[in-house]
Design a protein that fits this description.
The structure holds two protein chains of two kinds. Chain A is of the alpha+beta class. Chain A has 18 helices and 18 strands. Chain A is 37% helix and 18% strand. In chain A, a hairpin with a 4-residue loop joins strand 5 and strand 6. Chain B is α+β, with helices and mostly antiparallel strands. The longest helix of chain B has 17 residues. Classes of the chains: A alpha+beta, B alpha+beta. Bound molecules: flavin-adenine dinucleotide (FAD).
Chain lengths: 488, 424
């Protein structure tokens, strides 16, 4: 028996054999047919095959895998649920993928101190579900929350509809255990204690798209659910009225928990999707606005919002009459991206951010881009934050249309960058927006960031080729000069 | 640029250079740093000067870069709820400017009249209301930083949500000026609350645990205080005239919601507690006095040594830290005025007395805090004392990475050399 087993492994890549020793025979995939579903994440335009996928169960195993890769010069990267929209988990360099999905335990809940400790593979929505009976919840709520992992959220600094009032992932992370690219384990923000002296490595790690280290334990802040919520749905005949209402609400001193917008094409999509709510087909834009907090104060805020909408010529505006109705409106919104599948074979999600007051003009630019490219663009986005999600609808079977879609996406980002905005508000740069980084950063600024990567990840084995544009000549020259100086 | 030569650096708090430069443009900052870097000069950075007693083993630097004249609002779009200001603007100047738009920067650090926003961000300072509004690191969305070689680097952007590249803002917030000179800061704003009030609940020493239970139930209830700060009897005596443990519970919302929550407090307060409510202007006046109570480096008067401690712990552990400090102060004969944030875990203690007393107070409190996985650092103490007490304590995970970052950004140790943890 023993002998035959040995034979079976003969001819097997020795690295696979070694990795198998760390995680066990069942916790590794290496046959090409098993690896197929790991050739991309939610950004499906690019594909590449990993060397293997391993499924560690604890920090020690992650550290041992990483150490092995480090010693043997094998590229590697971490993967959560693979819902990332910028290609962060795509194995561009035949990486060993370290899947975090088996590390999915909740380790500790401390209601008195309002914190919870979870493993990185723990699914976002599960956290809220596990504490909701006691009246608590975890605030960052990406639309993918029913599948995406908290580890992936940390890596992308994920946002969501309710981040307008409550902040994004980085504002809710209290502590991280991290495996560095050489296998060493460090703890940041131990015990979730705030403001530990020293540089804010935790803040740097959050949003670093898995290029600085692999997060193996996360301490998050949890919140008490608000006493009351009121949700308003407003229909507009003009996009411009809708977007001006957004600014008016914000300027009126109201801090909505969420302030979302959809335009006509987006509405067509969600109404054809799994959770239609019967939005009129002929409106140009809708706003979904939620206020929450002390019940006694909500009515006044809702009144104020209704008044603002009326001043902006709203066609119809209503307040959710039940939790059930509110739930339907949100399901309709949160499944919005996927719903585009009902009206288009493919879609590309973009993720620009602009100062809120520039909303009307930038939306207009996006419509112009749609017209000149000949592709429909649906807008479904976090208006209150100025975080746009133009969804570019295309058909990859039509030759040249994928390229056209990518180009239109880039143009949308340029339109955001041109008004002083950013090329990504929550989905990350990954491989998708690497080159667009130049829209907002100078060569020196990019280099300042790369110097930080070098500190953590000097051999660039961890998630190589992401985040930064391919070096330009200017930088190469600089590097050579530096090296010559160093030799001198 | 105003320049002063041969400045006397004899003072109690150190962190000064013999030449003081006060740039009035960013270019001047950049040129200054280039020159310092080329000539191998060590530079100490200063804003309002309140924090000169904060960190630093080296007493003297060659040059001081004072940002006190580099001030003013650069950009403010009320509808965007963001503001961009120069580093030397004081907190009070900034808040006064925003007042006209019914907006504010929601941080409430000490000495708003003297502290500059650059200094507050560099030290990651905050106050009791961080419980609800977050700390400095939650509010900064963009920076212009002048690197030690004079290069100007922008981090983040003027938008409230942004994940393009690394979150480089975080590198400079709380870095105590050891990586670059923050020139401009862009922050998120909040609307000024429509109404505010402050509930004060005082109990005798033997009843103090009832305040702990109350704090736990407040947090477990669906009310939304902006702070839950426990003052020890000495601080309470100074600020309220009542020598009793006092819990500060603030509310900021529309008036109806504030009143509703005051009602909750009235109903749930411990039987033995004395409750006062300060409304609107009275509440604001209270916070003003509160923010000015601790000493800072602008106060050069001799007399009794006073030091300021900051402790970090799990939120509710702040309660036991405040209590433990009471015990230790009697054992080592020092006087302590303290407050601890039961909703965020940061406490501040002003300790006065003999130097030996202070040294052993810090030592004992550090041991206690370490047991709870907390820490104690010293935000303000004379140079002399910094030789016997390391302001930063001796342990932090990831220190080797911090050293490498310093080396990558400021290889010649031009900026605030040895001001920070581990001699960075
Ligand atoms: C339909 C849909 C809706 C979405 N809506 C939103 C939204 O509203 N807001 C939003 O912010 N995002 C949204 N996203 C994007 C995506 O869900 C988030 O970026 C999410 O945080 C990714 O989590 P994941 O577990 O899928 O990570 P993955 O996609 O597996 O990985 C993402 C990146 O994180 C790295 N990584 C994963 N785990 C770790 C770890 N433990 N340590 C270090 N690095 C790690 C990977 O290497 C990769 O670079 C949406 C995606 C989809 C498909």
């Amino acid at each position: 028996m023993l002998k035959r087993k040995k034979n079976k492994r003969e001819g097997m890549d020795p690295h696979i054999r070694s990795l198998m020793k760390i995680v066990g025979e069942k916790e590794i995939l290496y046959k090409p047919e098993d690896l197929l579903s790991y050739d991309c994440d939610g950004f499906t335009v690019h594909k590449a095959m990993p060397k293997a996928v391993v499924f560690p169960e604890n920090t020690e195993e992650v550290s041992a895998i990483v150490r092995y890769c480090h010693m043997n010069n094998l590229p590697f990267l971490a993967r959560g649920a693979g819902t990332g929209l910028s290609g962060g988990a795509i194995p561009l360099n035949n990486e060993v993928i370290i899947s975090m999905v088996k590390m999915k335990k909740m380790l500790h809940v401390d209601l008195e101190n309002r914190q919870a400790v979870v493993q990185p593979g723990f699914v976002n929505l599960k956290l809220t579900h596990s504490i909701s009976d006691k009246g608590y919840y975890y605030a960052p709520d990406p639309s993918s929350q029913y599948v995406c992992t908290i580890g992936g959220n940390v890596a992308e600094n994920a946002g969501g509809a309710h981040c307008l009032k409550y902040g994004v992932t980085t504002n809710h992370i209290l502590g991280l255990e991290v495996v560095l690219p050489d296998g060493e384990v460090i703890e940041l923000g131990e015990a979730g204690v705030p403001d530990r002296p020293g540089y804010d490595l935790m803040g740097l790690l959050t949003g670093s798209e898995g290029t600085l280290g692999i997060v193996t334990t996360i301490t998050v802040r949890i919140l008490k659910s608000p006493q009351g919520k009121q949700t308003v749905l407003a229909y507009f005949d003009q996009v411009e009225d809708g977007s001006r209402a957004v600014s008016d609400i914000i300027s009126a001193g109201i801090v909505p928990a969420a302030l979302e917008m959809m335009d006509k094409t987006a509405i067509e999509g969600v109404e054809a999707g799994t959770y239609p709510v019967g939005h009129p087909p002929d409106i140009e834009a809708l706003l979904l606005i939620e206020v929450d907090g002390i019940l006694a104060g909500l009515e006044e805020q809702v009144e104020h919002i209704l008044e603002v909408c009326r001043k902006r010529n709203v066609r119809e505006v209503k307040v959710a009459s039940s939790e059930e109705e509110r739930g339907r409106w949100w399901a309709n919104r949160k499944t919005g991206f996927g719903a585009m599948g009902a009206i288009s074979p493919d879609y590309l999600v973009q993720d620009g951010v602009i100062p809120r007051s520039r909303l009307p003009e930038v939306l207009q630019n996006i419509y112009d881009i749609s017209r000149t490219s000949g592709l429909r663009i649906a807008n479904i986005f976090h208006a209150g934050d100025g975080n746009l999600h133009p969804l570019i609808l295309f058909d990859s079977r039509v030759p040249g249309e994928t390229e056209k879609a990518l180009k239109a996406g880039t143009e949308c980002l340029k339109a955001c960058a041109d008004v002083g905005g950013s090329i990504t508000g929550e989905h990350g740069v990954g491989i998708e927006k690497k080159e667009e980084m130049r829209f907002i950063f100078t060569e020196e600024e990019l280099e300042a960031q790369m110097r930080i990567r070098e500190v953590f990840n000097p051999y660039d084995l961890l998630n190589k080729g992401k985040l930064f544009p391919t070096p330009s000549r200017c930088m190469d020259v600089k590097k050579i000069v530096k090296e010559t100086v160093a030799v001198k | 640029m105003e320049t002063k030569h041969n400045v006397s650096i004899e003072d109690r708090f150190g962190n000064r250079g013999t030449e003081v430069y006060k740039p009035v443009t960013e270019k001047e900052i950049s040129d200054f740093l280039k020159k310092a870097n080329e000539e191998g000069k060590s530079v100490s950075i200063e804003g309002g000067g309140t924090k000169r007693g904060y960190g630093g083993q080296g007493e003297a630097y060659d040059w001081t870069l004072s940002l006190a004249d580099w001030k003013g609002v650069v950009e403010h779009q009320a509808g965007d709820m963001t503001v961009t200001v120069r580093a030397g603007t004081t907190i009070a100047e900034l808040q006064t400017f925003l007042e006209d738009y019914d907006q504010k920067v929601s941080i409430d650090p000490c000495w708003p009249d003297d502290s500059t926003i650059g200094g507050v961000i560099s030290a990651n300072e905050s106050g009791p209301k961080r419980m609800n509004y977050g700390s400095a690191r939650d509010l900064v969305i963009g920076l212009r930083v002048v690197y030690p070689d004079g290069e100007v680097i922008r981090t983040g952007a003027k938008v409230v949500k942004n994940v393009a590249g690394y979150d480089m803002n975080k590198l400079f917030i709380g870095a105590m000026g050891t990586l670059g000179v923050i020139s401009e800061i862009t922050m998120k704003l909040r609307p000024k609350p429509k109404y505010e009030s402050l509930v004060l609940l005082s109990v005798e020493e033997e009843e103090v645990d009832t305040l702990r239970s109350l704090a736990v139930s407040i947090q477990d209830a669906m009310i939304e205080p902006v702070c839950l700060e426990l003052m020890n009897p000495q601080l309470s005596k100074y600020l309220t005239g009542r020598e009793a443990y006092t819990l500060l519970v603030g509310f900021e919302d529309v008036e109806k919601a504030v009143k509703d929550q005051e009602g909750w407090m009235e109903y749930h307060k411990p039987a033995s507690a004395q409750m006062d409510v300060k409304q609107e202007e009275d509440a604001r006046e209270f916070w003003k006095a509160f923010s000015k109570r601790a000493p800072n480096a602008l106060d050069q008067s001799d007399g009794e040594t006073k030091v300021v401690l900051k402790t970090g712990s799990k939120p509710m552990e702040a309660f036991s830290i405040i209590k433990e400090a009471e015990k230790i102060q009697h054992e080592v004969s020092v006087q302590v005025e303290s407050h601890g944030g039961l909703g965020h875990g940061i406490s501040q203690l002003v300790v006065s007395g003999s130097e030996e007393g202070i040294v052993s107070f810090v030592d004992q409190l550090r041991k206690y805090a370490a047991k709870q996985k907390g820490y104690v650092i010293l935000k303000h103490l004379p140079t002399e004392l910094r030789k016997s007490i390391d302001p930063w304590g001796n342990y932090t995970s990831g220190l080797f990475l911090m050293e490498k970052i310093k080396k990558a950004v400021d290889p010649d140790h031009t900026l605030n050399h040895q001001r920070f943890i581990g001699g960075i």
